[in-house]
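Example S7 (structure tokens).
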């Protein structure tokens, strides 16, 4: 890995991946929390016509013109979605889907036209579909760095307003904030982030860089500021690890590998994140099932003891197995470890017997009180 970092091309691509991860994690957090995850996909596909138009204007594969064209068409698509959803009955997901499909269709038509009629200088233009990280030049890093700094400055200066618009746009409008302007500005910045990633991961895969790091970060934290920083960190990790893997293994495209690393972080977060992870949910459910089984057993033994007017009435385990329909030995042993039951020496030829202790009776009474309160709706 250290040898790879000594390569000038790898260094350039790695820095580009760092900048892409930062801006994607920063602005993608707002898109995810606003439930506009499809926005990144729409803007990425809407950038393809701009790539073609920029090429036609410049007459060559000039990155400046191509990026400018991509930004214009992405912003136009975003504004189209906002206008349509605000002034018609079309929902956000339908508006995003329409803008995505129409924009990408126009882009494919233009790309086909260029490949069929333009000069040989159009070679490699279709690399914007899936990215061509190795073509990143040091001059491109200045553009990417400028966009990243602009995005960070914007978010820092308007943090409270953007946070309020993200979580409660109705209240933001009631206190005089121009919600439409703020949403448009934030959407334009997301479009700019998408344009930054076209060279690295391409039109098709850029949406993953906008969505994956924030989604992964959201599983670990519950505050916006923590989510933003963690999403930026995960975006950087995805970019750097993806670049190094693609550089170390021959014939691996950088963009898809970066996306796969980001997807792996999402998978690990969904599985392992405390409180929200799938494994933690399963563990919590398992503990609750164990707890419910123990509480039920205590109540059963307590009621049997009351019925027989003997607080230490020995209950045959086989009877408990028949009553619950499952083996209850493991539940009784856990209760014994907690001091709630003890083995009883009673009619050993019929199998083991168990009796409640004083602590077990107290715990059973508390459980019965909780059940009464729950039934009363208190």
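Recovered sequence:
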């Amino acid at each position: 890995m250290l040898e790879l970092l000594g390569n000038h091309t790898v260094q350039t691509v790695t820095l580009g991946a760092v900048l892409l991860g930062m801006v994607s994690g920063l602005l993608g957090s707002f898109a995810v929390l606003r439930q506009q995850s499809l926005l990144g996909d729409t803007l990425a596909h809407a950038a393809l016509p701009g790539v073609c138009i920029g090429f036609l204007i410049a007459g060559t594969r000039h990155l400046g013109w191509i990026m400018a064209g991509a930004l214009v068409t992405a912003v136009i698509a975003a504004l189209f979605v906002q206008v349509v959803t605000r002034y018609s009955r079309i929902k956000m997901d339908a508006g995003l889907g329409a803008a995505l499909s129409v924009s990408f269709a126009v882009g494919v038509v233009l790309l086909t036209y260029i490949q069929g009629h333009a000069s040989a200088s159009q070679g490699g233009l279709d690399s914007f579909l899936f990215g061509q990280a190795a073509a990143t030049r040091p001059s491109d890093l200045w553009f990417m760095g400028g966009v990243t700094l602009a995005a960070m400055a914007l978010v820092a200066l308007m943090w409270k307003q953007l946070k309020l618009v993200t979580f409660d746009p109705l209240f933001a409008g009631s206190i005089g904030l121009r919600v439409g302007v703020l949403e448009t500005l934030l959407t334009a910045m997301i479009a700019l982030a998408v344009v930054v990633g076209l060279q690295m991961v391409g039109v098709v895969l850029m949406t993953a860089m906008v969505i994956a790091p924030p989604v992964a970060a959201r599983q670990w934290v519950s505050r916006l500021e923590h989510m933003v920083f963690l999403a930026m960190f995960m975006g950087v990790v995805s970019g750097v690890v993806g670049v190094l893997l693609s550089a170390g293994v021959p014939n691996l495209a950088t963009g898809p590998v970066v996306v796969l690393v980001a997807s792996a972080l999402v998978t690990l977060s969904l599985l392992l994140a405390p409180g929200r992870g799938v494994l933690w949910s399963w563990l919590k459910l398992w503990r609750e099932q164990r707890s419910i089984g123990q509480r039920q057993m205590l109540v059963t033994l307590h009621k049997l003891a009351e019925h027989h007017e003997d607080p230490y009435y020995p209950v045959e385990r086989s009877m408990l197995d028949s009553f619950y329909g499952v083996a209850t030995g493991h539940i009784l042993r856990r209760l014994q470890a907690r001091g709630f039951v003890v083995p009883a020496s009673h009619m050993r030829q019929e199998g083991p017997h168990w009796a409640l202790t004083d602590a077990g009776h107290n715990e059973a009474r508390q459980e019965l009180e909780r059940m009464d309160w729950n039934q009363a709706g208190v």
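Notes on this example. The two ends are 62 Å apart (CA to CA).
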